[in-house]
Design goal:
The chain has helices spanning about 45-50, 75-80, 100-105, 110-120, 140-155, 170-180, 195-200, 220-230, and strands at about 5-15, 20-30, 35, 60-65, 70, 85, 155-160, 190-195, 205-210, 210-220. α4 (about 110-120) packs across α5. By secondary structure, it is α/β, with parallel strands linked by helices. The chain starts with 5 loop residues before the first strand and ends in a 27-residue tail after the last helix. It is about 30% helix and about 25% strand. β9 and β10 form a beta hairpin. It has eight helices and ten strands. The model is unreliable at about 235-255 (pLDDT under 50).
Length: about 260
């Protein structure tokens, strides 16, 4: 049996006195794309921030294990050194640098051909290397450039928060191929989304509602349950604050 790449055990996070993660348990194995599906306000982004180690999302209890080691108390910088990375739901703008300069920050020794290949994988052409990373880029373009950067990093675990945001359906198929490449070998991908079609392309999925994992199973089974049973979260969520940069068992319908 392979060792889990990521194992989250009964994770609880409280912010400003409000519980936002309530006993989350999940795992990602090497070579897997694992989806976390849920409505807006379910706690998906808060989970991503907690796993990355941002300071507003320090667990009050529970454990996070990465490649068999307890990283619950480690800072974001140490987790990054281990090979965890997070693609934010809303990519940051880096004023004053070109896309080429931005992509060169992804890893040491990145060659021109590597950058061109990474852009082609997200359906952007080579001339984008000369573009400035600023407000002139659309949200979808910035998202694609960020995904190209993640691909160049080749992290052990890529956590992608709403990677389909601003990406049209035609490009989405090619980008899913990129996720498959990211999950090759001993690496893995944790894909966070509110879109059932995106989650259905994963190897396995979890369904999240009101800070809890309420369902685990095949991606298709979780998709069917989500579409037939889930309504918008009824609890008023504490909205996540953007961090500072450095086969399924049924659940009663009223729960979701």
């Amino acid at each position: 049996m392979r060792e889990n790449l990521l194992f989250v055990d009964d994770l609880h996070v409280t912010r400003e006195g409000n519980p936002i993660l309530k006993g989350v348990t999940l795992r990602v194995n090497p070579g897997e794309i694992v989806g976390v599906l849920g409505r807006n306000g379910a706690g998906k982004s808060s989970l991503a921030y907690a796993l990355m180690g941002t300071h507003r999302y320090t667990p009050s209890s529970g454990k996070i294990f990465f490649a068999g080691e307890d990283i619950t108390g480690e800072p974001i910088s140490q987790r990054a050194k281990r090979g965890l990375t997070l693609a934010w739901q809303h990519p940051a703008r880096y004023e004053g640098i070109t896309v080429r300069q931005y992509l060169r920050l992804s890893a040491q020794g990145v060659k021109e051909a590597d950058m061109e290949d990474a852009l082609s994988r997200v359906q952007l052409e080579t001339p984008y290397l000369e573009r400035m990373v600023d407000k002139a880029l659309s949200g979808g373009e910035r998202k694609r450039i960020e995904l190209a950067s993640i691909f160049l990093m080749q992290p052990r675990l890529a956590m992608l928060d709403e990677p389909d945001s601003g990406v049209d359906l035609i490009a989405l198929g090619d980008i899913m191929h990129l996720f498959r490449d990211l999950a090759g070998g001993a690496n893995g991908v944790l894909l966070i989304t509110h879109r059932e079609d995106v989650a259905a392309a994963c190897d396995r999925s979890y369904l999240m509602c009101n800070g809890r994992i309420i369902l685990e199973g095949s991606a298709e089974a979780v998709k069917r349950y989500f579409m037939s049973q889930c309504s918008p979260c009824t609890e008023t969520p504490l909205l996540p604050v953007a961090p500072e940069l450095p086969a399924a068992l049924p659940v009663p319908k009223e729960v979701c």
